[in-house]
Structures are given as structure tokens and as C-alpha cells.
Amino acid sequence: MQNMQSHKRNSLRYWIRGDIVGWQIVNALEGQMNVGRSINIAMAKNDMNRTALAKAMNTTNQNVHHMITRGTASAETLTKLAGVFKMSVSEFIKLGED
After folding, report:
1. H/E/C letters for each residue in the chain?
2. Cα–Cα 20 to 30 A to 93, which of 3, 31, 37, 64?
3. How far apart are the first and last CA of the chain?
4. pTM reported for the whole predicted model
């Protein structure tokens, strides 16, 4: 991955490309994190659909769809997502672990 910074924080590794942040679990036994999976699980736990999430985040359905299908989000978006679901960013990220 060109032009990316990689950082370790706790047991998570994250990379930054522009304002997009991707997360990956360092411990191979724990698998990889996927923002899209975290979103889907959080929506299911909160009985929320994409339209309601988009409205809560003041964005479009299409943007929510892209976050889910790409599996990545900016640091700012991760913070917003965690806030919508009333959890910390690390708790939100943990939902998407394989």
C-alpha cells in the first residue's frame, strides 16, 4: 500500500491513507477488523437500518453503503459511528473483529 502510514496502538494496527483509516488486529489469532461488519452488527444490536444511521450521522444512505462495502472509514467517521451507537471507538471496532 503506497503512501500509507502504519501505526500500532494497543493490540490494533491501523493505517492511514489521506483521511481514511483502516484497522487490523495485530494478533493473528483474533483476525482482522472490518468497519462494515462493525456497522452491520451495531445496527442489528440497535435495531437500526441504513437510513436511520445515515440520518443520525447527517449523511446519505449512499455514504453509509460505501462505508459498509469498503470496510473503512476516516477517524472522524469512526468517532461519529461510535457516538451514534453510544460506545467508545475501540468498542465499536471490536464488533468487527473476525
Report:
1. CCCCEEEEECCEEEEEECCEEEEEECCHHHCCECHHHHHHHHHHHCCCCHHHHHHHHCCCHHHHHHHHHHCCECHHHHHHHHHHCCCCHHHHHHHCEC
2. 3
3. 22
4. 0.68
Residues 71-96: tens digit of each pLDDT: 888 888 989 999 999 999 889 988 98
Backbone angles phi, psi at 22, to 5 degrees: -115, 145
pLDDT in tens, 28-45: 334 466 889 999 999 999
Print the domain residue range for 57: 5-95
> What CATH number is associated with residue 42?
1.10.260.40
